[in-house]
Amino acid sequence: MTTARPDGGVKSVQLAFDVLEAVAAAPGEVGVSELAALLGTTKGTVFRHLQTLVERGYVEQNTVSTRYKLGTRSYLIGQVAAGRIELLTASSDAIASLRDEIGETVVVSALRNRTLIVLRTVFGKSNLEIGVRQGSELVLHGTAQGKVALAFSNRSLLQHVLRQGLTRLTDHTIVEPARLEAELEQARAQGFITAANEETFGINAVAAPIFDRSGDVAGTVAIVGSVQNIRPDPVPAQIEALLKASLRISWNLGYDRGAVDARRRLDSAAS
Amino acid sequence: MTTARPDGGVKSVQLAFDVLEAVAAAPGEVGVSELAALLGTTKGTVFRHLQTLVERGYVEQNTVSTRYKLGTRSYLIGQVAAGRIELLTASSDAIASLRDEIGETVVVSALRNRTLIVLRTVFGKSNLEIGVRQGSELVLHGTAQGKVALAFSNRSLLQHVLRQGLTRLTDHTIVEPARLEAELEQARAQGFITAANEETFGINAVAAPIFDRSGDVAGTVAIVGSVQNIRPDPVPAQIEALLKASLRISWNLGYDRGAVDARRRLDSAAS
DNA sequence: AAAAGTGTCTTGTAATACGAAACATCATTT
DNA sequence: AAATGATGTTTCGTATTACAAGACACTTTT
Question: Is residue B105 part of a domain?
Fold first, then answer.
């Protein structure tokens, strides 16, 4: 599914992570044969990799079923990572208040490598849980988060998206480049954008950008819910709370509008 | 520090995880040279491994400082693992109530591979935070958690510990095998055990075992605090709440005392 | 009783991960 | 301003080693 990887580093390590991620993607426990088929390799190879992963504790083997699942080391490294990822530590308080104030699901995503990845979702107060799975990738032209990221990033990201083509997800998905451009302009003007029914029918989201200390887009915050609770024109309280949260997070990341603008002027003067 | 690994699986993958874990262990960002020195290998090799890790998103490179830190994928795989590790899902509610009821720090550890690893610690209500770092290893003969795990596990685990030798950590550490045996007997009789000043002076803990569906020790729950708040003879409320939590977690793991005993009788009759 | 699964183990070979050393950028020092 | 000593990055030949194929032991299904 992923674009053919142009031979990155250490081949056997790539396979090891393929195995690890396949184990992670499996709903329950997985067997060696199943993994081998999934990854298009032999049982022996998968087995050997599982051995290392088990020895390291990233994967565990159920001694009775002899099948495999994620191990404690995987969890623990994630715990360490949670404390090291600025976007997470910077956003935790702000998204908790945002959720409590508005009651809708709050989603934080990170822009990494031309993709928006969902880092954290905190479900709203409603009994019906609407959210986006952590780790999943947000379509840049088809979600509020994606559009707001595009609006405030380098034009090169937009060009990249246009080159890939604007695939239709629902009949409200933006597929005309001109309309997308107009939306991005609107996002820049307002500081936020919505995306009712564009990715999934019946669902809407309002997203705002998060900036890092150098003024680049680090990610997005968004509130997500049914079109009933988040209208195409969201109520002012929702917008205000969202913008407040996004500013607070950016601030925690060291973003300072004035300082960034000044630095930009210097840089362009130098070149 | 760890016992010389007897050549487990794929060598280059071992190195890759060495690199990953070294990045995780570093307080902030790390450089290639630093890592190479730390791992006793060359810069080139470390660099190549970092490339794969970065490509996969487990590690990220700060483009301005060119140094490395843990990446979002590490966090995300941990999130998935958190949902797959039975001991975590089974204990989350119980430890939250336990902490709220008693107010002291609660620590859950898992028995994996003859070692007790701290999975989760929830700090108590006091302003002074006393806890055990997640991912750290608990000394089996020198902590309440370790002793309770020894008490309810196979004798082979105890033999393993005795073979290693009972290293002294404080002047209250149990270093005589006979005294350890006596403590284990007490733990079995009471269903819990304390360990005042045995690992760190001034600190005490009360621990109880967690059993899985086959009746084996899966881990421990413990409350940890200063000797002032957790006395060598803990107050009944603390003991009762701890035992209630441990039973609740074991139950969530599928432990059923009657069923396990019956199964044991059948097994021994068959042999 | 046979057949089709499973996970595990062995072996020869071709691929590849490694180490050493060179290279390109920086800061700092001289 | 030149020189030094860091850093991260790249190249290259070789010895290592990870791989595929197939055998094996075992359980479950037919």
Answer: yes
Q: Give the model's pLDDT for residue B2.
A: 31
B168 — pLDDT class (breaks 50, 70, 90): very high
Q: How far apart are CA B142 and CA B139, in angstroms?
A: 5
For strand D, give the nucleotides within 7 A of a protein CB. Answer: 6-12, 16-23
CATH number reported for the structural domain that contains residue B65 in this entry: 1.10.10.10
Are the beta carbons of A155 and A141 closer than 8 angstroms?
no
Structural domain containing residue A128: 85-263
**Closest C-alpha among B118, B111, B123 to residue B134:** B118
Residue A11 confidence class, pLDDT cut points 50, 70, 90:
confident
Closest Cα in chain A to B57 = A112
CA–CA separation, A211 and A252 (whole Å): 10
B 202-241 near A (Cβ less than 8 A): 214
B4 vs A: CB within 8 A: no
**Best of A58, A76, A115 to mutate (most B CBs within 10 Å, chain B):** A76
Same domain, yes or no: B193 and B242: yes
Burial A109-136 (b: 16+ CB within 10 A, else e): bbbbeeebbbbbbbebeeeeebbbebbe
Kindly tell me the burial class for residue B214, based on how many C-beta atoms sit within 10 Å of its own C-beta (0-12, 13-18, 19 or more): middle
